[in-house]
Amino acid sequence: MTEPVIFAIRHLSAAAGFNVRKKLTKYKPDLVLIEGPANANDMLPWFCHKQTRLPIAILSYTTQEPLHTLLYPFAQYSAEYQAISWAYEHNIPCRFMDVPSDILLSLIQAKEQGLKQEQEDVYTKDTTNIYTSLEQTLEQSFDSIYERSLEQLEQDYDVKAYEFGQQIRLHSHDDKFDYALNHVREAYMKRSIVEAQLQGFNKIFCVCGAYHAPALKQNEPLSDSEFEQLNKFSISTNITLMPYSYYHLSKQSGYGAGNNAPAYFDFVWQALKLGDYAKASYLYLSHLCQSQRQQGYFVSTAHFIDAIKLANTLAYLRNSKYPTLEDLKDAAITCIAQGNAAALSVAFASVDIGKKIGKLPTNVSRTALQDDFYKQLKNLKLEKYCTFENITLDLDLRENLKVKSQDSAFLDLNRSFFFNRLRVLNIDFARQTKYKSDAIWGESWNLRWSEESEIQIVESALLGETIKLAATFALKEQANNCTDIASASAVFEEAFLCGLTQVCEYALKALQKLSVNTAAIEEISKCMYKLANTIKYGSLRKFNQNDTLTALLEQFYLRACLILAQACICDDKAANDVIESIERINKVQIDLNFLDQQCWVDLLKDISNRDDLNTKCSGFAMAILIERGLIDENLLNMELSRRLAKGVAADLGAAYFEGLAQKNRYSLILRLSLWKILDNYLQSLDDEEFKRALVFLRRTFSEFKASEKSDIAENLGQIWGLNQQQVSKVLMSDENLTSIDDFNFDDI
Amino acid sequence: MSNLQRLPAEQQYQQELEALIANEQDTIPTNWKMSPRSVLKYICGGKAGKLDITPKYIGNKRLVEICIATLVTDRALLLLGEPGTAKSWLSEHLAAAINNDSSKVVQGSAGTTEEHIRYSWNYAMLIAKGPSKQALVKSPIFRCMESGSIARVEEISRCASEVQDALISILSEKRMSIPELNEDVAANKGFSIIATANTKDKGVNEMSAALKRRFNIVILPTPSDIKSEIDIVQTRIAQLAQNFELKAIAPNKNIIEQVVTVFRELRDGVTLDGKQKLNTTSSVLSTAEAISLLSNSMALAASFGSGQIEAYDLASALQGAIVKDEEKDSLYFKEYLENVMKKRGSAWSELYQACRELN
Description:
The complex is a heterodimer of chains A (748) and B (359).
Chain A: E1 5-9, H1 14-27, E2 31-37, H2 44-47, E3 56-62, E4 69-74, H3 79-89, E5 94-98, H4 101-117, H5 127-138, H6 142-151, H7 157-171, H8 176-198, E6 204-209, H9 213-218, H10 224-231, E7 237-243, H11 246-251, H12 262-274, H13 279-294, H14 301-317, H15 325-335, H16 341-353, H17 368-379, E8 391-396, H18 406-409, H19 411-424, E9 430-433, E10 442-447, H20 451-460, H21 467-481, H22 485-498, H23 501-515, H24 521-537, H25 547-567, H26 572-591, H27 597-609, H28 615-627, H29 633-643, H30 650-660, H31 665-670, H32 672-684, H33 687-702, H34 706-720, H35 724-732
Parallel strand pairs in A: 1-6, 2-5, 2-6
Antiparallel strand pairs in A: 3-4, 3-7, 8-10, 9-10
Chain B: H1 9-12, H2 14-22, H3 36-44, E1 46-48, E2 51-53, H4 61-72, E3 76-81, H5 87-99, E4 105-107, H6 114-117, E5 119-121, H7 123-129, E6 136-138, H8 140-147, E7 150-154, H9 161-173, E8 175-178, E9 183-186, E10 192-198, H10 209-213, E11 215-220, H11 226-243, H12 253-268, H13 287-304, H14 311-322, H15 327-339, H16 346-358
Parallel strand pairs in B: 3-10, 3-11, 4-7, 7-10
Antiparallel strand pairs in B: 1-2, 5-6, 8-9
Helix pairs in contact in B: 3-4, 3-5, 11-12, 11-13, 13-14, 14-16
């Protein structure tokens, strides 16, 4: 029996992909084994389907909490994919040989639990340390080291990679859990090889990560009893093949596997196929120049040539034949962006990562969530919107009385729920835009399908079997992570928009727990406003007012009534926020009649009477009382005369008037007696006091409209017995203000 | 020891340069004295045979690599950076290592003329004999073109634009024409220019796009972390103390750390832990400034004090460096003293008290 060939690779390396194909063609094996979950073997035919476009990924996840996932991404140039497609082209059997994902996930779960229990044990010596110390010694990133020492090798890639794996194994010390996990996996893979040999395969070719390669040669396979024991570990999991994107690939990178620049390695792959590694630099830099030009920068061919020259010299200084990505980037910064790295950041992102998105034939293994998504699209009659074009859809959330069935009567409402749920799951299919009118029953959504959306759906599959369940799970998670009532009420609002009554309850409970420690009037009033809106417009979304919600609102209302007076002791800057809060609470009280009105009115009276509070707040409280018709003219006049009296500081009086004038200006203008009081007050001031008061009053009246000002002029004209137009003319001109030019504003 | 106030780099580090040349293993570019890798070793430190090479530039080694690679490709190099980020320092050492000659310098200023870049005439001879090679007074750049070596132009952005433009043809054609003699001088291999420019002076004489195109531009940053800045200050202080024969005891690490901390915080407008925002002062608080501040304090302490830098010496030096002429600076520094330094605990209390008294 011939020894199997163990081909050591780095995942997602172009050189590995190129060399594995070369070696396969030379060796002509009768079986190809790949490092990957054995329970994904059924998916292998899809890899080479003519409609499949890479990158794709195998995703496996636990169906119950705690959530754990396993991801095996493949790019066009991945050694695994190249080996699979070679086997397919030559009609040679091909299999995955690693531990099935259901068992591996349960082992990972066990590991996490073990780590939790031994928290005090800190494992400092793990494999990552080897890589970082390598980086420190050679003063470059591991990616560069790898590129210089392995990726650029012209021959014996697998031999060097094997050696590299062996050295890493020798010098790294993982914690005992990782060690055990790797040990089990390697023994399992070895067993797969031995089994294949027993089945009569004679020339076996294995593709596996460099780290595991030495173990596959040296270690013992899993014994029968161990194998049986391992099989007991299986837990309930799902496994699926999904389209993937270069963007996602770039986020998956770590030392052992993956790369930050999947598109760059695509260039390397193209260059290798052309038989000239140096072409990769040209491809990369020319794309970079192009991308930079598209953003409006000037980049000439001369810049390009200079950058190539510099990159080659940098490579030479580091003893490598060809520039690495790092060399190319540094050269580009120096020659193209004139030393300014920030100018190239967008180009780097787009050329390093690229926009490539994978694709699978439509009938490939779908997750339950994907099935549910397409079922809902059909039920909600949205299939025709599933295009790459941007289509706007207007929804009318009201019941459609012209149709017979319940489903079609609330079709648009259900669509809105669906879109909102997708939004919560970060599935970028529908985006809400502004509706053409202010009607609260109308919504407008922009619909656009993209391949990225498919990936997002598969990713959400971890959260639940259906869109509804997944959204429920996601929102509950959010509710659990809330630390203040603002975020908790936001979760409640989301749940309300998604039509998830159960989650609404859940979020309310979270909100209630958090409310105990909240004592900021602004936060409370904002939260009340949000909750009250759901009661007010709830019926539109078939949301029923429930006891928890009313109880919570009552609780907030009471708290607000208790702390509001205290909050009014503040400076002028803060007073505006307090006034907004008062306004919000007032609106909520008007909308919801179960909130005790008397308590609110008493409080407002107290605020408007007290002298120790911010006078603007007092004035505003008075304004609300007037609006509610609780103050007669005499009372108002009395209060105003008290506030606007000679001897009271001018700014305090003016601020009171400013607060008062925030509301029902028209009714204020109509009250002639009020203007008499103001007139009397101003008459009573001496010159210096008048100047001061003028500054503040002018600010107050700056918010009045021209027509309102002219009405005031009419009032004053009547008081002074003058013609309205004359008064108006004098009042509206700025000439009279020259006298306050020498006023010292610094004292204010 | 030499009596010169300051030795050029190639003399000061003669021993190291000789050792590097003696231990050369790589190919040497035409007209260079050593290989690019040895130049890198000279600047960033390492070992040549048995001799330890002291690091001249402490910071991102990659930047030095880019500088050297630029000069290998016979492109010109432009070093940009705030004042005190070791631009001239790096340019001098690069020239010293590559040519063993860092003295071919044109100092850019408002008074620099085209003649300083190209050539001028010995007028007595010109009048007596007419234009001739003997009457020609060559600029440092001219001489570098002939010998195939590196010329330095300091503060290039302070030159008027017509003077800057004179460089364009030299850098692109690598020739200089002398119409008076009907001659044309071509540059030998190895000729290049290292220019430096200050980012704080940006806009004084903005460099033209055509000229910028002919340079590879490397921006030198302020030291990225406090540790490397302390290293830089400590190394330079030790060297200066030796040069000036200062009798004071070199400041201990604690004092250097305090100065560097104050400088970094006021420069970046935020405390080192990133928790508190500060107002930045208008004064230039570079690493070079910190070095000169400390060497001044040493001189003060040696000449008029106890020979050891006291908190009082340090405080008055800090005051001088930070509070330049503007009213605001004094205000911001006072704020800094009260809000940050006061709360730093006993290690800082002495310095705080001393600064407090001055304010």
